[in-house]
Write a structure and sequence with these properties.
By secondary structure, the protein is of the alpha/beta class. It has three domains: 4-257, Rossmann fold, CATH 3.40.50.620; 308-415, Anticodon-binding domain of a subclass of class I aminoacyl-tRNA synthetases (Four Helix Bundle (Hemerythrin (Met), subunit A)); 420-467, no CATH class. The protein is 47% helix and 15% strand. The strands form five sheets. The chain has a four-stranded parallel sheet with strand order 4-3-9-10, with helices on both faces. Strand 1 and strand 2 form a beta hairpin. Helix 4 packs across helix 6, helix 6 (205-217) packs across helix 7 (231-246) and helix 11 runs parallel beside helix 13. The two termini are 39 Å apart. Mean pLDDT is 90; it is low at 165-169 and 413-419. Belongs to the class-I aminoacyl-tRNA synthetase family. One of its GO terms (molecular function) is ATP binding. A motif ('KMSKS' region) lies at residues 266-270. Its EC number is 6.1.1.16.
């Protein structure tokens, strides 16, 4: 089965065929860096990381660009509040973003271009639109003529006549049409600015992605992604700007993830129910957050609550316990493969095929996770056997690692706890203390390990340990 992607533009699943064989050019709209990212921002960050991982795991070379909007009204207001500069605000929250996504197991993009580093390209792009009569200047601002781009609305499937009727009476009188949008904003006194053919100012929001996507990936992308809320107006405006100049599709496949609800309510500033990733990772394990995000199909809404997080915690613990058991059994496994190893290989391959079939079906992560738990069940059943081969255990462990190459749910090394020589030494000392009936020392070591989040368990093969 070949990969099929639901294309927002056509509202259909389509076979994925990149422009260049073996290579994928992917652009995903990144954060406006005026604050810590919230849980809603985390969903596309995690999901498109999985898209990138899956494409790479199947042999594609992926150029993955995620931009930083490091100048706009929000940054200007934040700089005023903090009595600092816009660049300083941007740098602070770009560093916070990088720290947060690293905690979430997200691989850094191939490139993170910043608006402020691409002003000449943005001005040039606007000038081209002006030269082709797709844009006009009025009062130091430059606007895009939406009625000149006849396909405006094709991505979001908006009815332009209805949109026009819905525009407020107080629309900017300098616009020729209420739907026209700003490409360049004249600077107000005291604001950060750059010189341009239309005077001192800064870019509008929509133009930055068109200019940077063209600069770093070319006129047509393979995949353009972002949250559902970006379909209109942001991505619609990108389409208009880019295709007006190139006459080519801006992207072959448009992907948009669904909303996040908080306790069954839509997350919004008015409700004050937003949660930053910076806060969240202090009380919820990053693997649990990733699992939660991937437990629903990316196009569906997902509800964040204590209950759904508890379910995710239990699921991650089940996987981790299984892996710890596999690693532990390696210490007493027989070296020779047996008939059960051969039979197991066939069952594991079937599960791996199921995993890839689900990922090939528009990145269906919840069903791919079902395949992961089929592997957990297979492993747990295998571990019930009194004698197992090292080959069979490595077969199962390698399957987990191949799944996690895509999902990114597990620690960098599944056996990280078992590699900690200090913990092993403490456990050995505790065993010796119990043998010599030094109960006080044994209890002291037990409490010390518990404080470090180490759980001790007696098994038929002896004492083992794992991290909570």
């Amino acid at each position: 089965m070949s990969l099929r992607i639901y294309n927002t533009m056509t509202r259909e699943k389509e076979e994925f065929i990149p422009l260049e064989s073996g290579k994928v050019k992917m652009y995903v709209c990144g954060p406006t860096v005026y604050d810590y990212i919230h849980i809603g921002n985390a969903r596309p960050v995690i999901f498109f990381d999985v898209v990138r991982r899956y494409l790479e795991s199947t042999g594609y070379q992926v150029e993955y660009v995620v931009n930083f909007t490091d100048v706009d009204d929000k940054l200007i207001r934040k700089a005023e509040q903090l009595d600092t500069t816009v660049p300083e605000v941007a740098e602070r929250f770009i560093q916070a973003f990088n720290t947060n996504i690293e905690a979430l197991g997200v691989h850094k993009a191939t490139l993170n271009p910043r608006v402020t580093e691409n002003i000449p390209e943005i001005i040039s792009f606007i000038q081209e639109l002006v030269d082709k009569d797709y844009a006009y200047e009025n009062g130091g601002d430059v606007f895009f003529r939406t009625n000149k781009f006849t396909d405006y609305g094709k991505l979001s499937h908006q009815n332009m006549d209805e949109l026009q009727l819905g525009i407020r009476i107080g629309v900017d009188v300098r616009k020729e049409n209420g739907q026209d949008f700003v490409l360049w904003k004249a600077a107000k006194p005291g604001e950060i600015f750059w010189e341009s053919p239309w005077g001192a100012g800064r870019p509008g929001w929509h133009i930055e992605c068109s200019a940077m996507a063209r600069k770093y990936l070319g006129e047509t992308l393979d995949i353009h992604g972002g949250g559902h809320d970006l379909q209109f107006p942001h991505h619609e405006c990108e389409v208009a700007q880019s295709e007006s100049l190139s006459g080519k599709p801006l992207a072959r496949y448009w992907m948009h993830n669904g909303y996040i609800h908080i306790n069954n309510e839509k997350m919004s500033k008015s409700l004050g129910n937003g949660i930053t990733v910076n806060e969240m990772i202090k009380r919820i394990k990053p693997a649990v957050i990733r699992y939660f995000m991937l437990s629903a199909h990316y196009r569906s809404p997902i509800n964040f609550s204590d209950e759904t997080i508890a379910q995710a915690e239990n699921s991650i613990e089940r996987v981790m316990n299984c892996l710890v058991n596999l690693q532990h059994r390696l210490t007493v496994a027989i070296s020779e493969a047996d008939e059960e190893t051969v039979a197991l290989r066939g069952r594991v391959e079937a599960i791996k095929e199921q995993f890839h079939a689900k990922m090939d079906d528009d990145f269906n992560t919840p069903d791919a996770i079902t395949a992961l738990f089929d592997l957990v069940s297979e492993a747990n059943q295998h571990l019930q056997r009194p004698v197992v081969s090292a080959e069979s255990l490595h077969l199962l462990i390698n399957a987990f690692e191949s799944f996690d190459q895509v999902l990114g749910l597990l620690p960098e090394k599944q056996s990280e706890g078992l590699l900690d020589a200090d913990v092993d030494a403490l456990i050995a000392e505790r065993v010796e203390a119990r043998i010599t009936k030094n109960w006080a020392r044994a209890d002291e070591i037990r409490d010390q390990l518990a404080e470090q989040g180490i759980v001790l368990e007696d098994t038929p093969q002896g004492m083992r340990w794992r991290r909570k």
